[in-house]
Amino acid sequence: MYNEKLNELLDNVKTVFENVNSRKELDDLKVLYLGKNGKITLINQLIKEVPKEEKREFGMKVNEIRNIFNNEYNTIREKIELEEINSKLNSEAIDVSLPGTEIPVGSAHPVERIIESLENLLMSMGYDVVEGPEVEKDLYNFELLNLPKGHPARDAQDTFYVKNEEYLLRSQTSPVQVRTMLEYGGNEPIRIICPGKTYRRDEDDATHSHQFTQMEGLLVDKNITLGDLKGTFEGIAKMLFGNSRETRFRPSFYPFTEPSVEMDISCFNCNGKGCNVCKGTGWITVGGAGMVNPIVLKNCGYDSNVWNGFAFGFGIERLAMLKYGVSDIRTFYVNHDIRTLKQFDRREM
Length: 349
Fold this sequence. Notes:
The protein is an alpha+beta fold. It has 2 domains: 2-91; 110-342, BirA Bifunctional Protein, domain 2 (2-Layer Sandwich), CATH 3.30.930. It has 11 helices and 10 strands. It has helices at residues 2-15, 23-34, 39-44, 52-91, 110-124, 138-141, 174-184, 226-241, 294-299, 316-324, 338-342; strands spanning 128-129, 135-137, 161-163, 167-169, 190-199, 211-221, 247-254, 257-266, 283-292, 308-315. The protein has a 7-stranded mixed beta sheet, with helices on both faces. Strands 2-4-3 form a 3-stranded antiparallel beta sheet. α5 (110-124) crosses α8 (226-241). The longest helix has 40 residues, at 52-91. It is elongated.
């Protein structure tokens, strides 16, 4: 009786996998034969009813059936998994010979490019980058810089007051220099640059804006000369406009420096011969500078008999217009198609 059941089960195991085509059908068969109530499991439990002298043969027969089932199960499973992988590879195949999809990326604004270039150069010279508030006290923006109320030089920087005449939108980044000197208490040397937005009551046209970006620099130490200022400016000019640029100083007037100078570079369009870019002079003015006025040093806690230094300032948009050949300052402030900014991605030579 037991042999008949075993032989019948063996015949079923050998043929049961013939029509299996999926992982689910295969798993269902495993439950049907090897599960808790599976056919092989249940027949194995009959061993307790088998006569003692037949138990060994019965057990070996059950193990044989189980091994046949497992071997066939594993073979079919590997076959199905391979078919699934091949099907997935065919449906998700990638043609590696096709060109990749270009993902558009942002581009740095030309004004930001100038700022980063100046910061990298001047930090390599030992300068620190310092920032300050855009809403500033009149005390820091004018008075401590030797521009008391009623001084005629204020007219050139007439700005936007936000609270009586005590607070205003800063017309220059010089207040950052004042704050730094006051913080140092007149006892330490200073070497800083101050980039940031500034505001003046200017007409908006091709070369002027009521808001623009400025970067000023300040060096306070002992035994500083105009020669040190000239060397610093020459390094900046050559970095921005090329090693062939010549530089010069022209006398000028600023209340916060004495003596004061205009900083010029030789025209990069005509190499100093004279053209419409430089208005026939061969030179282009790019900023103002000078030795720090002793009155400013005194106002900020420094003994001018011991300390001296220089300050300089650039309009960043002005430098960007010259470097990139932009004819209208308003170009920097309008909304840009990314393709407009891409033209400034050229490699520096």
